[in-house]
Amino acid sequence: MTNNTNVSVLFVCLGNICRSPMAEAVFAHTVQQHQLADHFTKIDSAGTAGYHVGDKPDSRSAATCRNHGVPVNHRAQKVTSRHFDEFDYILCMDESNLEDLQYKKPAGSKAEVSLFGDFDPQGDRIIRDPYYGALDGFEHNFKQVTRASEGFLNHLGLL
């Protein structure tokens, strides 16, 4: 779909405080590690719901990233119709997000909408919401989004 030199990616979960800001941070970090930043115009995240607009990421999500040397700098936002033309790829965390995004996607918009977990080489397709669970859920998510980040860069032909 893209020429692999001006790619924009939006990561989406429900509230944009746990999974999608983690995916955004890990993907941006992975892009930097592979010196691929010149291939990306924008890397961001959002939520399908507006419960947390303006909030910082969940402290457990941010701490998990920091523990792995991944910086997090994000404020929650809600997906709007403009995102579907602003981004080439909108990658979401679970089937509920996918269904919501497919419903919201305006006709004729350019974004390819799919599950981020589709790019996990281990086939762990659903990145489950860790919000109501223990810390190990955040660690599991971190491993998933790390693998999916590499897998997505492979999909784009950049690795």
TrEMBL record:
Keywords: Cytoplasm, Hydrolase, Protein phosphatase
Catalytic activity annotation: O-phospho-L-tyrosyl-[protein] + H2O = L-tyrosyl-[protein] + phosphate
Domain of life: Eukaryota
Catalytic residues of the enzyme: 13 (nucleophile), 19, 129 (proton donor)
Any one GO cellular component localisation term in the record: cytoplasm
Signal peptide range: none
GO molecular function, one term: non-membrane spanning protein tyrosine phosphatase activity
Domain Phosphotyrosine protein phosphatase I positions: 7-155
Localization (cell): Cytoplasm
SUPFAM superfamilies (alphabetical): Phosphotyrosine protein phosphatases I
Family per record: Belongs to the low molecular weight phosphotyrosine protein phosphatase family.
Protein name: Phosphotyrosine protein phosphatase I superfamily
